[in-house]
Description:
GO terms for molecular function: zinc ion binding. The protein is mostly helical and 177 residues long.
Amino acid sequence: MYIPDTEIGELKSLQASIIDAIEKIDNQSTTELHEIQxxxxxxxxxxxxxxxxxxxxxxxxxxxxxxxxxxAQEFMFFPCGHAFHTECYNSKLKNDFNDRxxxxxxxxxxxxFTVTNHKLCLICSISSVELIGVPYFTYYQLQEMNASQLExxxxxxxxxxxxxNENDDEYDNSEDY
Length: 177
């Protein structure tokens, strides 16, 4: 049986196209398989961390505020994975301008730190997310600014941190911003 050269060329071209399509499908399948395996590994890791309602905390774990050994003092561990010394957490919360309302709502003496309280995490909480993009000033910067410099911030939230030293003459711990 005789097949003209033009048909042989078309068949070879078709064969090459089919092989290319199969290779693309194979590559896609391999990529999807790797993505599935990655998701499985992340699920396995998350499951291992939360098995039976407890979490293993490394002896080398550090406080997410002061970065010293977590086990050196009483500490809190949140479901999000962040951990704080109780003293560091309370101090940070007390001094954080935007968390004053949260401090009033939270009573450490009556409330347990459970999964339902993960929103109290200083790193993950909505109040922390709301700080993104908020203008930031220290107490002394604010004192040095004149009215025209403050005008663009009128009626907008700003974050003010207290950089005064307790030995400063104008230091008043009870001042509310």
